[in-house]
Each structure stands twice: as structure tokens, then as C-alpha cells.
Design a protein that fits this description.
This protein is mainly α. Helix content is about 80%, strand content about 0%. It has one domain. The termini are far apart.
Amino acid sequence: MVSPIYRESALKTWSSFMQNAPILLGMLLLISLFITAVPKSLYSSFFTGNLVLDPLLGAVFGSLATGNPLNSYIIGGELLAQGVGLVAITAFILSWVTVGIVQLPAESLMLGKRFSVTRNMVSFLTAIIAAILVVLTLGVLA
């Protein structure tokens, strides 16, 4: 027999999920539309090999595109094959997974505007710094 506490918890969880489902569905559809509308070949034309500008652009594109980690490795490999530098790809992958400009309205609604904006800003800056450090570290090791 299921405890009344577990039943109440399950009902609250289901209610919360159903309340947020339209927002989540809209966010997923918007992300899918953006990813489909922007061709991957467009990315390679923006990157020049600059150690400062490339991670910034990579982080911007990754923040706008937003996706899951599995897809980011595939896209990163394709960008590498098209001649995009590792610093830009690293910033792109990190921001793709950690920053979510498209999903910011939904995140703000569920977690609060201040928290969501702060988390996205910190993740964006961290993606740029980590990308530069990764490439510099690989340069020292190579």
C-alpha cells in the first residue's frame, strides 16, 4: 500500500509538471526551430583563429543555439572538420550545454529571474575562460 505522503508528493509533482509542460514544449520547439534555421556552415565563416574573439563568438553562438551534450560533440566534430579552431569549438560546446538564452524565459519563470540571469552570465564567462585555458594547456602539452 502506498503511503499518503508519497501519494500527495506524486500528485504535487504531477500538478507542477502539467503546469510547466506548455512552457517546456514551447521552449523545445523554439530551440529546434533555431537549430534547423541556422546552417552549420555559417559558423565556420565567422571564426578567424583569434584567441580572444573566437571563444567570444563561439560562446555567443552556443548560447543562442542551446542543446544537449551528445549533439554538441557531433556538431563540434563537424565544425572542426570545417576548419573552425579548437578554442571556438570548446567555447561553443561549453555554452551550448550550460547557457540557455532561448530557454531563459522558462527558466526565469521556474527558478526566478535573478537566479537565471546570474547563472547564464556566469556560465557564459566560464565558457570563454575555460575555452582559452583548454587551448593554452593543450598548446603547452603538445
